[in-house]
Amino acid sequence: MADTALNRRWAKAHPDLGTGPVAIAPYISPDFFALERERVFRRAWLNLGRVEELAAPGDYVVKEIAICNASILLIRGQDGIVRGFHNVCSHRGNKLAWDSRGICRGYLTCNFHSWGYDSFGGLKWVPDENNFFDLNKSELGLTPVTTEIWNGFIFVHLDPEPREPLIAYLGGVADRLTGAPFDRLALAHAYAVDEKANWKVGLDAQNEVYHLPFQHRYAFPDNFLVDGQGYCRVTNLGLFGYHSVYSCSYNPGHKLTPSEALVIQMDNGDSDCRMPRIGDFDFYTIFPNFCVLLFKGTAGDVCQTFNFWPLAVDRTIWEIRMYQAPARNAGQLIAHEYWKRQIRNVIEEDATAHETVHAGVASGAKKHIILQDDEIQIRHFHKVLEDYVQNGGASRP
């Protein structure tokens, strides 16, 4: 058999993860979904975006975490610090900021009774204040949400007293990526796909390369390296407590289409952005629902992020963002638009698969899914998830 040296190597390296099937019930059980709400999403660090979204003092964005019935207001204070708050007025519980983004030029005011809050979350204005009883504005500011920033990525924790700080939670991911030049990249495009699928179905589908030669045979027919049998392989694997990373390689013999050759010629001028990549394509899964993809582009490295936000046991918002060095000329701008179209084609193929896979598991025809050796990172994710559901993440894998 070809590639016997690679055969089942990951299971041999991580025997604690086992080799058996994975139950389908967690994908379709409303009871399990309720446990995920309370024991995973309310007890884990969640990425809500990047600091570039809050460029200047007073800038704010509103992020909805539907699975936790939480609306989060992220705002850069006049002191330059990014803070998070529950987007809830202290008076009668109305939503304070209704726009997805904006600028607090003085106060943010509730449209119900016009209570006003500053960029630090402090309550500063109450109409007809003297008609209240023992009102102390200093004690009635917005409810803070624990907020930390790593490499420009904004994370929040809905538990007022997280069990561990963000850097400890990230563990080996932080060891590998802290200091990476994410700040040299700009948001090139973003998508939000409303899928009729469980959030884990989508995440699992992205968290492996087994499908590349088959599902993406038209979008990327020979872009990734395959072995003598035509299978794409994980070349490197890292398991960091709650999180994981895998890598795969590009095909050095990839045959450029005429349009690709032209685009690469137009994408002239190399970028100085170099990420600490392990391979040509690195895929980090940061538990529970955030993924960071680093890969070699035609002019410098590129970063793509995924957030899988559960809306219901059978519905998910898949957020996709692409970051790359800003275009320096018209040729690079055209190249960016070309690769944007290519990525969109892949996203459409993936999103369709997410929904058809969910329909299959929800049919009841099967009770388990079967994983091969190069899908061990999925097995690791489900073991972490099971631990969180059972113990709230109290025991690090």
Description of the structure:
β17 (301-312) and β18 form a beta hairpin. The mean pLDDT is 93. The chain is globular. It has helices spanning 9-13, 25-28, 30-41, 166-170, 172-177, 199-206, 212-215, 258-266, 330-362, 376-391; strands at residues 22-23, 46-50, 59-65, 70-76, 82-86, 101-103, 108-109, 116-117, 123-125, 144-150, 153-157, 186-195, 236-240, 243-248, 281-286, 290-296, 301-312, 315-324, 368-369. The protein has 10 helices and 19 strands. It is of the alpha+beta class. α3 (30-41) packs across α10, α6 crosses α9 (330-362) and α8 (258-266) crosses α9. Strands 2-11-10-5-4-3-6 form a 7-stranded antiparallel beta sheet, with no helix packed on it. A 7-stranded antiparallel beta sheet has the order 12-18-17-16-15-14-13. The chain folds into 2 domains: 4-43 and 179-391, Naphthalene 1,2-dioxygenase Alpha Subunit, Chain A, domain 1 (Alpha-Beta Complex), CATH 3.90.380; 46-161, Rieske [2Fe-2S] iron-sulphur domain (Rieske Iron-sulfur Protein).
Which tags fit this structure?
single chain; 19 strands; Naphthalene 1,2-dioxygenase Alpha Subunit, Chain A, domain 1; Rieske Iron-sulfur Protein
Short structural summary:
With 397 residues, the chain is α+β, with helices and mostly antiparallel strands. It is built from 10 helices and 19 strands. The protein has a 7-stranded antiparallel sheet, with no helix packed on it. The chain has a 7-stranded antiparallel sheet with strand order 12-18-17-16-15-14-13. The chain has a 3-stranded antiparallel sheet with strand order 7-8-9, with no helix packed on it.
